Amino acid sequence: MLTSHRSGSHQDIRQFLESVIREDSKQGLFKVHRGVFTDREILRLEQELIFQHSWLYLGHNSEVARPNDFITRKVAGHPLLLTRDRDGKLHAYFNTCSHRGAMVCREPKGQRRAFYCSYHGWAYNDLGHLIDMPGRDSMAPGLIENGEMNLKEVPRLAEHHGFIFVCFDPEIPSLETYLAEAGDVLKLMSEHGPNGMEIVGGTHEYGLGANWKLIQENSADAYHTSTTHASYLEYVNARDGARPKVDPAVSAGWARDLGNGHAIIESEGAMPWGRPSARWVAGWGEAARAEIDEIREELIQRLGEKRGRFIALGDRNTLIFPNLVVNDTLAITVRTFYPADVDRVDVTGWALAPVGESASSRDRRMRNFVEFFGPAGFATPDDVEMLELCQEGYRNQTAYEWNDISRGMLKEVPAKSDELQMRVFWRQWQNMMLRNQED
Fold first, then answer.
1. Which phi and psi (to 5°) does residue 399 adopt?
2. H or E element: which one contains 139?
3. Does one domain contain both 245 and 156?
4. Phi, psi of 175 (to 5 degrees)
5. Model confidence over 33-85: pLDDT tens digits?
6. Is residue 439 part of a domain?
7. How many Cα atoms occupy the beta-carbon half-sphere of 45 within 13 Å?
8. pLDDT digits over 10-30, tens only?
9. Of 128, 152, 176, the domain-final residue
10. Which terminus of the chain, N or C, has less C-beta within 10 A?
11. CATH code, domain carrying 135
12. 28 within domain boundaries
């Protein structure tokens, strides 16, 4: 295990990292050593070499739509404050007072022109400038005016079609370059509604006893659907009996490498569940059919036949390296997850929806979102149990050391139930662990 090399040489660590993935393209074999899910030194290196050098999702522009709107989030262990200033410009600050370090904002969201540290009363305006403090005359001349005590901004902040990202590495390539083809997928998500998109009020937050990378694998794993989520498929097929039964694990669909560790699985019209934008199912009743048809026609008129139908009838699970998932299936789910320990991960999820959609369409969307993706829905408890069982099973590394991720290796176009998307993640994971270690 790598932990045993912590006090060893740089070369020892590099050799271990090079050995944790076995890939043989001729034999169609891809394996990952189970130690990457259990070794705390691996986790320490991930936090240092991956999370500090990747673009990470912070929020959506709809959450800070008006001047002086703000949200607070923790990103890769950093408490952050995202604000839109009086002139409409976005800022991401480290949420810590320049005096003695207390957080300057404790609320999850709101609207403010100034932020006050509750420890000693230091005040900052919406531009992050220190503007006042008790006993200001005790400070030497120039200490406030030179700007060194202003709130510190995160080195990089960028937005892509409403999705806001930050990075702690000032030298990282642009967000557009980093996203590669995943940027096109986020653009597609932004086009669901003619008036733009918004995060629906409310947040899902939960934790589970598994390594964070298992969430990334699971979030675009069509292979497990028919077994792990059998109860949901039985429910859908019973409710929507008029629709042919479909096994998502073997149904039509494909997987694509989007570049830079990002990947997607997608299909068009094959899945058994309904989509509020815009695939009708019998369980929604005849009254909903006309509205669903109108939504689909609006998409086609606005975006063209091919793109409009693909949004309306398709399903997409998108992985953006290292820890953002945007699933456009029963509803649009935006999910991030960060390791709390080597065998503990904290998950946060939001629903994304078209601005101004009807109350009936929003109701169908949120019912789908909560019913399947919610912490108490059909899918999430199933997934939590399976991932915790994996983590527990890794205690048997002396008996079997490797996970197999070989499905579809020899296919020209892997199916969505194959594992190309996971191999894409693991290649980028290893690349960053080795490259950034050298830096």
1. -90, -40
2. none
3. no
4. -60, -40
5. 999 999 999 999 999 999 999 999 999 999 999 999 999 999 999 999 999 99
6. no
7. 27
8. 677 888 899 999 999 999 999
9. 176
10. C
11. 2.102.10.10
12. no
Residue 49 lies in a domain: no
pLDDT of residue 237: 80
Phi and psi for 121 in degrees, rounded to 5?
85, 15
pLDDT bracket for residue 197 (50, 70, 90): very high
64, 63, 37: which is closest to 396 by C-alpha?
37
Indicate whether 211 and 279 sit together in one domain.
yes
Residue 363 CA to its chain's centroid (Å): 24
Residue 334 shares a structural domain with residue 275: yes
State the CATH number of the domain containing residue 308: 3.90.380.10
Tokens of 325: 């998932």
Total structural domains in the chain? Answer: 2
Q: Which residues of 21-46 are buried (b: 16+ CB within 10 A; e: fewer)?
A: bebeeeeeebbbbbbbbbbebbbebb
Cα dihedral 183, 354, 417, 181, rounded to 10, equals: -10
The reported pLDDT for the residue numbered 4 is 47
**Same domain, residue pair 169 and 233:** no
pLDDT tens digits, one per residue of 207-222: 999 999 999 999 999 9
Q: Which domain does 396 fall in, by range?
A: 191-433
Instruction: Establish if 132 belongs to a structural domain.
Output: yes
Name the token pair of 202: 């409310």
pLDDT for 9: 62
Using the 3D structure, point to which of 176, 207, 226 is the last residue of a domain: 176
Q: Quick one: residue 402, left, alpha or beta (phi over 0 = left, psi -120 to 50 = alpha)?
A: beta
Residue 402 has pLDDT above 70, yes or no: yes
Helix (H) or strand (E) run with residue 110 in it: strand 109-111
Q: The tokens of 189 are what? A: 């998500």
What integer pLDDT is reported at residue 239 of this predicted model?
80
Rounded mean pLDDT, 268-291: 88
User: pTM score, two decimals?
Assistant: 0.94
Q: DSSP for 175-191?
A: HHHHHTTHHHHHHHHHT
Q: Report the distance separating Cα 284 and Cα 64, nearest Å.
A: 33
165 contacts: CB under 8 Å, gap ≥ 6: 55, 56, 57, 58, 157, 158, 159, 175
